[in-house]
Amino acid sequence: MKLKSLFSPKNLPTIVTLGLFVLMFGLGSVSFRGFFSLQNFLNLFIDNAYLIIIAVGMTFVIISGGIDLSVGSMLALSTMVTSSLLEKSRWDPLYVIPVVLLMGVALGLFMGWLIQTFDIPPFIITLAGLYLARGLCYVVSIDTIGITHPFWQAMASSAIPISGNSFISPSVIVAVVILIAGMYVSRFTKFGRTVFAIGGNEQSAVLMGLPVARTKILLYAFSGFCSALAGIVFTFYTLSGYALNGRGMEMDAIATVVIGGTLLSGGVGSVLGTLFGVFVYGTIQVLIVFQGTLNSWWTRIAIGFLVFVFCLLQRLFEVRKGGRRRKSSAAV
Amino acid sequence: MAWLNTLTRRKIFWPLVALAFLLAFNLFFTPNFFSVEIKQGHLYGNVIDILKNGAPIMLLAVGLTLVIATKGIDISVGSVVAISAGVVAMLIGGDLKGNPKYPIAFAMSAAVLVSVAAGMWNGMLVSWVGMQPIIATLILSVAGRGIAMVTTNAMVVWLYANPFALLGQGYLLGLPFSIYMVAVLLLLTWLAMRRTALGLFIEAVGINPTASRFAGINAKNLIFWVYAFSGFCAGVSGLVVCSTVMSADGNNAGLGYEMDAILAVVIGGTSMNGGKFYLFGSMVGALIVQTLTTTIYAFNVPPEIAQVVKALVVWTVSLLQSASFRAKVAGLFGKREVAA
Amino acid sequence: MSDNAPIVELKKICKTFPGVKALSSVDFRLFPGEVHALMGQNGAGKSTLVKVLTGVYRQDSGEILLEGKPIRPDSPLAAQKLGINTVYQEINLCLNLSVAENIFIGREPKRLGRIDWKTMNGKAEEVLKRLNINIDVTKILSSYSIAVQQMVAISRVLDSSSKVLILDEPTSSLDETEVAQLFKVIKKLRDEGMAILFITHFLDQTYQISDRITVLKNGEFVGEYETGNLPKLELIAKMLGKELSEFSYTTSGAREKKPDTADDTAAGTADDPAAGPADDTAPLLEAKNLGLRGSIAPFDIALREGDVLGFAGLLGSGRTETARLLFGIDAADQGDLAVKGKKAGISSPRGAMMAGMGFCSEDRKNEGIFAELSIRENIILALQAKMGASKYLSTKKQLEIAEELIASLRIVTPSANGEAKQLSGGNQQKLLLARWLCTNPIILILDEPTRGIDVGAKLEIMEQILNLSRKGLGVVFISSEFEELLRCSTKIAVFRDKVKIAELEGEDMNERTIMQTIAGGR
């Protein structure tokens, strides 16, 4: 890629986010001893593998102009069902994983169907989905279920060496695969381009003959899939199913997507940008840990604030652009 | 039977029927559901519990009714409840002798003021910046939890000043004190809406935002103050919640309240699309939600099921309110081509 | 122009919707290698005809022939497959996608299963070259002007199998240079043999680009003409549904001289009774060089007490845009507005209302009526907004005010408490008028208050306008019917193609002169 096209307006938001990350990482490196290390960087992947997966699904949903508030609860439900099937029902992982993924897809499909067919705002449908999944978590079990299955234990403790003493976990591989798949789909497939078209102007997309209805429903199914997969990955990390997992995670996902340069109004976005958004998110958390004295809940506030800033900027950008051409009502 | 017609026409009819149905169900299937005992001059019983436990949601529903009427939504109310509880708990605190750190009245005012500020923040984002309400209030909903936790230093904060317990645990003339608070808020709001033009303006903005602008209504201002008021209601609700357990848990206070409140408003007759609103309907809606929860409890079903049921109800009501759904159902009974 | 057989023929097309007869036995022919303009006023049936041709609607009776063979397209996609392509007024493209993508989305060239961007970009450049356009096809569509966007829209629908191109009001948002660009493209396509159906309001453009004109009125076919043989004046006459000879020069029905002249001697301001009103009183409303780029060219307007200023012009001439600037709905980007001599920074309808203005929109449904509110609430709403929320009009007082207006405007309704959506069109219009009347305005702007309502209600509204004028209000009255304008106005502003071109008074206020002014003869 030529250097000039790298900085074209299309890529600018992504560059900005990358710049923000570099800035923060640099700040940490300067302020704290031991911050600047390859492992510290790789930890961003290891600790946030689940978030990367969820955020990829969320990126597509937001590009289409919608939103999915159920992702955190879906992740929790996924952890509950996984651990319950493994420990209580003693199923083989070969069956557990597909079943859990299917569950995510099914729920996503249902919500997508409601949203598309009856023209109901996504936020209320997925908000209800949030509570449904959360409730189902408790139905599965109120207590934490620990996972003792050897495969899971292996996944949790595996360290794939990268260079020298640095390593990553298998979850990272999964996350990177999903990330690359997401980037490919968004750029090189009809489905991906249709998502962008829907986000830009749904009516036009319909008139242009694009399969809008089908795409919208599949979108939410994909998001459900990602949430379920993220849940499985999460269990590799925590080796348990816990009903209170993933609270507030939908906001984390939305935050990383927004910070990554995707417009909440839809039509513009990048999966790679979301990865950088996750970097920013992860770095904030690490900074707070290294700082030592701040309550970890400051992360919530910081994330909320960042989202606010980015939303504000997006809004100002929209107003600036929209002011040029107005729609005149029925001309006389 | 013309009177029957006018009766069923009133928006509050169906919610009342639903409530009556639930109560009747309990009458037949739940032993001792309606039994009321008098202990120490106070009334006790399942029905009283419904009123008492429902009070925080009813308080929220008052503010949320107006927000939804303007075609908006506020999902930050749960977090604001937690912030309010946290602020009042930290300010009152007190030693084991019951002496508060700061005067109770001061602490309560501070908590409510902070909540109003939170509401104003939402209002600013929605009306001046022009953000979608769901996003604007989502930000506070998450950041607010963080603020609540930071306020309480991530610990459960206990209070020892007994007078404060009156709000959530006290009784007046036999009934829980919190119900009186609901009644007062409801009455004052109703007066403000129906004895001034505010109610009319809010409905106009929700029914036809463009026409209301053309008719000279200052929609921006109106929407701003509606969100501020929602924050106020959440603040008062937080006081009651805190007072009920004489403690504030930043993590769990108000959790899921926004769902209950939205459900209450929607069941009560106000449409998610905005426009005409029904304060009393929202109160009935809140009672229905609370009765549902209590019924589930009384049957020894895990209370988590209640969340599942609520979610299903939201989906159902969303469908019923969707014009597209109604058209498709009507369409099953004969298609009609309409001039586009 | 070609003498071959027509490529498209619509024969005796009828289409009725519940309550309205959109098309009655309409004929239409389109030849290859020609630009054919379809013209008509509101309710003529132009868009319905096009929707029948493109498969959005199915006609009740009549047939469609394509190259001599009958066709029955049942969707726009089906029509496209037959070679009939449409580019709508609202550019139905996605501004967030690149030019190349907008042209090819849905049928992108693929390689090894994935979208081949390089080939797509190359092909896009080729297609645009056919229209003599050279742009960077990788940039997103929103970075280009509307004119370019339009041509991209045209490119999208063009391919080897395109036989018919329908352009629905393509020039509404374009400026002169952009229109010229577009016309170059259209001419090229026509010369290559494309059959082009061109729908527009703009008279000048019709004469610039079209070879043939078909006129519809009220769902009926008026006639098909060769552009070169149809003088502008006659075209206007046909669009208004009459023969040219029927338009009179007489000022019958026109207003009597303004009231002020009669009172001059009483006020002692002039020696000569015929001198007209004293000029030292500032006009109620004065606009100087007020304009908005893309909406209406800068104009001057002076409205005095008792004036009824009529706005005459064809559909799309800019009358509503002018009204919206006056009432603060749109913000002008140049010029001044003064109320009663004082400069008024009116930046919102509320500001206009507080300055004493009122506005009845032509789009009653979306900009006027609150369907679910009661009739009385609809009526007192503006007054209540003016008074402020705290000074609440009790239900009793609301009823009083409402009933008075219901009576004086003769609004037909069993009760003032019923929902406004139950009212008929005419009564809803009166409702809007009532709303502004109770605010006691000094200036009232009425945009098409007589459109779509029965004759009786029309007369009543015009009666009201005359009343208001006698009471000393300044009224702006927009109407598509010349008779109505002449009946009520004291002077008439004439608009054409988004410019206020003249103001007619006295002897000039007759139908013929209005038409000639529009046609450009004066």
Features:
heterotrimer; A: 332 residues; mainly alpha; ABC transporter involved in vitamin B12 uptake, BtuC; two-stranded antiparallel ribbon; 14 helices; globular; C: 522 residues; alpha/beta; Rossmann fold; six-stranded mixed sheet; 18 helices; 34% helix
Which sequence of strands runs across the widest sheet of chain A? Answer: 1-4
Structural class of chain B: mainly alpha
CATH domain topology of chain B: ABC transporter involved in vitamin B12 uptake, BtuC
Rounded to the nearest angstrom, the distance between the terminal CA atoms of chain A is 51 Å
Q: What's the multimeric state?
A: heterotrimer
Measured as a percent range, the helix fraction of chain B is 55-70%
**How many separate domains of chain B?**
1
What is the C-alpha radius of gyration of chain A, as a whole number of Å? 20 Å
Q: Based on the structure given, which CATH architecture of chain B is correct?
A: Orthogonal Bundle
The first-level CATH class name of chain B: Mainly Alpha
Low-confidence spans of chain A? 323-332
| Order of strands, widest sheet of chain B | 1-2
CATH topology of chain A: ABC transporter involved in vitamin B12 uptake, BtuC
Largest sheet of chain B: 2 strands, antiparallel
Question: Looking at the structure, what is the overall shape of chain A?
Answer: globular
Elements of chain B, N to C (H/E) = HHEEHHHHEHEEHHHHEHHHH
Rg of chain B computed from alpha carbons, rounded to a whole number of angstroms = 21 Å
**How many separate domains make up the residues of chain A?**
1
Number of beta strands of chain A: 4
Shape of chain B: globular
Portion in beta strands of chain A: under 5%
